[in-house]
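Hey L., structure's done. Input below.
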Amino acid sequence: MKLIKLNAIASTSSFLKELAQDSPLENYTVVTTNEQTNGRGQQSNSWVSQSHKNLTVSVFIKDFDLTINQQKYLNFAISLAVFEVLLEEEIPKPTIKWPNDIMSANSKICGILIENSIKNQKIYATIVGIGLNINQTEFPDSLKNVTSLKKIKGIDFNLNELLLKLIEKIKGKIQLLASKKYDVLENEYLQVLYKKNIPTMFKDSSDVLFMGIISGISASGNLLVELEDETIKEFGIKEISLA
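Output:
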């Protein structure tokens, strides 16, 4: 692992992407910063993080031999790595909210952004951005249902120790991926999927509300929801949200 620590940067993922364009990178090159001024989340959302309080980290990963239509397993691997860190820190009721938000009960504690490099229908490398709320206890009013390790446990956490633990967990899950243990990753992910098998109110892209039950993940990585008429419908990331 090559670790690059920065005091401040616009985005660790953007920084790492530029590095990868300029020269070959060592597997598990990690960039972390005390302050991220333009963090990015899913669907062009921003990621807000208080300086020196949280983990804002991006990891360059290669050598796992995955085709484009298998990319959901990479998402499973990274999400489960973060989930297991929370489990070991005894964070209550951790789950993974599809596709890869990490929750404690009904509050978000971590966001993940995965950006793949593709050639000849294969993912030959990826940059994984992770924002994990650790010692921050106050959040903007615009952020609803957000929490941190310190808010939950009432103690300060060592950022460096958690970073090293996180990277080791990622390495372990990527090893499962490289060994093509796809069923193991999917079973573990489904066991901790937020709201799975629970009647839930959803909102579609037209802001129409409907009841459904999350039943699983499709082959393409979309969310499978059983509707009230007992049919199962597949939704992409921009097509559905929890109401």
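The chain has five helices and 14 strands. The chain has two domains: 2-191, 199-242.

-- N.
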